[in-house]
């Protein structure tokens, strides 16, 4: 089931961000797979690496009220007003026709394109091959190891009983990629535990 996350407000060939007004329980979290339909019919896939809420003057005023703030005001702010929320995603691949490529797309998504959360079936299909690990591990300015660990736990859960075998395969690929950095490999493998 695809769930709309928000609309693109910033993009490049390596990352994109969407703005949304309210986080709902169904909106994905850190490590979830999302996609955006781009120009030319391509779908660009990303992993959510950040969900942030910027402040605004009204929220500051409400926070300054401290303990005197009524719960009804908080609920009204969370559900009925435009709270500035931004969801950032690291690009990990794209689809052209039926082919999924685990590499950077030729062009980024456009402003106001819709970011969608991928359902379990699409997550399983995308993660059949693990070629995109290098894109994640190479993102030095992001919490790459935490991101990959969270994503792999989601991908394993989507596979139900086959999740354990998937994590073993992922561990083997990571061992090859991080053979010269055993400390990082060990820390990353610990993150894969349920």
**Which range does the strand content fall in?**
25-35%
- Taking Cα atoms only, what radius of gyration do you get, to the nearest Å? 18 Å
Major pleated sheet: 6 strands, antiparallel, barrel
Helix-strand category: alpha+beta
Distance between the termini: 24 Å
Low-pLDDT residue intervals, each spanning 5 or more residues: none
Widest sheet: strand ordering: 1-2-5-4-3-7
Helix content: 25-40%
Q: Tally the helices: what do you get?
A: 7
User: Helix and strand string, N-terminal first?
Assistant: EEEEHHEEEHHHHH
What is the domain total for the residues? Answer: 1
State the shape: globular
Number of strands: 7
Overall pLDDT: 89
How would you sum up this structure in a few lines?
By secondary structure, this protein is α+β, with helices and mostly antiparallel strands.
Describe the protein in words.
- The chain is of the alpha+beta class and 194 residues long.
- It has one domain (3-191).
- It has 7 helices and 7 strands, in the order ββββααβββααααα.
- The chain has helices at residues 57-64, 71-80, 120-126, 133-137, 144-158, 163-177, 182-191; strands at residues 3-11, 15-20, 33-37, 43-53, 85-96, 99-101, 114-117.
- The protein has a 6-stranded antiparallel beta barrel with strand order 1-2-5-4-3-7.
- Helix 5 (144-158) runs antiparallel to helix 6 (163-177) and helix 5 (144-158) packs across helix 7 (182-191).
- The longest helix has 15 residues, at 144-158.
- The radius of gyration is 18 Å and the shape is globular.
- The two termini are 24 Å apart.
């Amino acid at each position: 089931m695809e769930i709309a996350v928000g609309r693109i407000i910033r993009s490049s060939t390596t990352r994109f961000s969407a703005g949304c007004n309210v986080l709902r329980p169904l909106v994905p979290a850190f490590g979830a797979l999302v996609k955006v339909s781009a120009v030319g019919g391509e779908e660009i896939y990303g992993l959510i690496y950040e969900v942030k809420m910027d402040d605004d003057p009204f929220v500051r005023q409400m926070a300054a009220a401290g303990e005197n703030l009524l719960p009804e005001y908080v609920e009204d702010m969370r559900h009925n007003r435009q709270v500035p929320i931004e969801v950032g995603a690291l690009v990990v691949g794209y689809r052209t026709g039926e082919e999924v490529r685990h590499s950077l797309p030729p062009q980024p998504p456009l402003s106001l394109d819709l970011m969608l959360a991928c359902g379990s079936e699409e997550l399983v299909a995308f993660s059949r091959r693990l070629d995109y690990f290098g894109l994640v591990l190479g993102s030095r300015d992001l919490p790459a190891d935490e991101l990959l660990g969270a994503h792999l736990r989601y991908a394993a859960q989507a596979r139900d009983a086959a999740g354990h075998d998937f994590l073993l395969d992922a561990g083997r690929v990571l061992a090859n990629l991080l053979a010269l950095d055993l400390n990082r490999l060990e820390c990353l493998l610990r993150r894969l535990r349920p």
